[in-house]
């Protein structure tokens, strides 16, 4: 009996980065094993993203100037079904991933492959991920620096000895049969089995940015998902521009960008998911940032009050206040 072909739908969230989006789409369509469909979730971009998609042949019509609901159009492009969804407003990365994942799930695809517009998979990424589809239900590509693939974009701790892994070579060395079990960098070339999605649901859409992916990862771990990083599958992604990323007392990194929207969402979202899934991390976070703002930054009262407000919003599950920090 012939084995059923697994279907894959890629989900790409974009906002005002049309050139990067084109780079990502080109990489998806150049895969040795192409996805069966792609959802482009446009978070109400204002840089004429839809126009460049039309001129590139990905869509055949433009959305109306004024939208009162999500606008969806699709087209078969080189054997891949391209779905373009224009959102009414910017819902952030979490809202975009929610929208695309739900649509792909409702369409019945076996695997949902998720990413943002600023990264892209190398040519054999999907093919190599699918080779490990029987081993896990949360399959992750190895996320490498876009400018230097010898380095990882996001380092991670070796689950065996808790040592930091920061290079592609180190990741390959600790892998077993090409897999690193229990490790995944979510939302950057991660592929989710629909059975797992049915079990754990979709990303929490009102988190907006920074921390939504960690909440989803923690939720997956809570439900005993089989997380695997496939070291032969590479996903290129730029290194995040964080103004400060330091370790205090040998504990987790203290991240601080100085950009209020990012910092607020990170503080709030992290407080929310750690309270739910890792209470010790929640306490560590409070101590580390209290020390950071009061001692390291020499009694930065404004910064500390800002942190406390975001932290408390996360503790009580309030998710509307980030909008005050959105660009006007």
Structure summarized in a few sentences:
The chain is of the alpha/beta class and 328 residues long. Helix content is 36%, strand content 24%.
Q: What would you say this structure looks like, in words?
A:
The protein is an alpha/beta fold and 328 residues long. It has two domains: 8-136 and 185-225, Spore Coat Polysaccharide Biosynthesis Protein SpsA, Chain A (Alpha-Beta Complex); 244-325, no CATH class. Helices cover 36% and strands 24% of the residues. It has ten helices and 14 strands. The protein has helices at 18-29, 49-55, 92-106, 125-130, 168-174, 194-200, 212-222, 260-277, 279-296, 301-316; strands spanning 8-14, 37-42, 71-77, 80-86, 111-116, 120-121, 138-145, 151-157, 164-167, 179-181, 190-193, 227-237, 244-247, 253-256. Strands 1, 2, 3, 4, 5, 6, 7, 10, 11 and 12 form a ten-stranded mixed sheet that branches. Strand 1 (8-14), helix 1 and strand 2 (37-42) form a beta-alpha-beta unit. Helix 7 (212-222) runs parallel beside helix 8 (260-277) and helix 8 crosses helix 10. The longest helix is centred in the C-terminal third of the chain and has 18 residues, at 260-277. The radius of gyration is 20 Å and the shape is globular. The mean pLDDT is 93.
